[in-house]
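Researcher: We're teaching a course module on how sequence relates to structure. For the next exercise, students receive a sequence and then see the predicted structure as tokens, so they can try to spot secondary structure elements on their own. Here is the exercise chain.
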Amino acid sequence: MTIKLAVDAGNGAFKLFGACGGQETLSQVAWNGEQHVANTLGMKKTQAPLNIRNQYGSMYIGRDSHSYGRPVENLDTDRFNGTPEIIGTFEGALTRYCQVYGPFNDSLSILVGLPQGILTGETVEATREGVKRWMKGTHQWSADGQSYSVTVDEVRIASQVSGGLFDYLLDDSGTFIPSRKRAFTSEVGIISIGFGTVEMLVVRDRTVVQRFTTGATSGVRRLLEMLNGERLYSLGEMDIQLRSGQLDTSAVLPVWEREVSGVIERQWGNAWRRFAAVLIMGGGAILLKDTLPLKFGGKAWVPDNPVQAIARGLYKMTLTSK
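Model: And here is the predicted structure for the students to work with:
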């Protein structure tokens, strides 16, 4: 029997969720992963990022990778067709998951969440097949010198933001939460504020309402670009500073929030008043948790873990299928 695993393949991080729980690995990649300067007397010792070695070579994956090697910041949609950096990130995320919860004792059945923007238009089928092609099969790699092998038997595709809906509707066993079941046949708006994009989805009676559904490149990356006007740091380095509370965002946070609000306003206007609920999630939801929900007159719902909510919701979706 295969092991069910959900993957939220985000620009900021790969989030994995399975029966044991969730794990997040930052989507930071750097080449030249085996060369570093030895620690010297008087210098603070730091732990190197995860070193992944596969058929493409050696690379650092995850937190602080951009401080150890040549940063790779390929954020275009072509990476979902199987670039070396996305394969390395996937294998790094599997490594971290195994380190926390133990090795997989069987092959995997994966439901992977992708940005809405690449699941629309004429190339959607090619994108789906491209993801399945590189993700399915046996992956063999080493992580910090230890060998790993994982076989993926099945890959299914969903939009990331749809995972957020099912995180709201279903409990941890994949059963509808009675008090929220009505929302499944009503209109529900979902806003996912990720690293690269702000994505919006409205579902009415299990059908996507196309005119209210969109994606825009106004995610947390935009906030970091405002703070990094002279481009002194890679986006990965800026992301680490933000997560560590080392960035003063007071001047630009209101500007970015207005940009996010503008995306929502242009697409929804006041139509949100007719929704049963407005779900707000993604890493950006943490930054805007004290202000953005107030715009929706008591209808907003922010999950307990906005970062893991999409992966968790995707995993709940797998529990509804036999």
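Model: If you want an answer key for the exercise: The chain has two domains: 3-35+48-159, 174-302. The CA atoms of residues 174 and 316 lie 5 Å apart.
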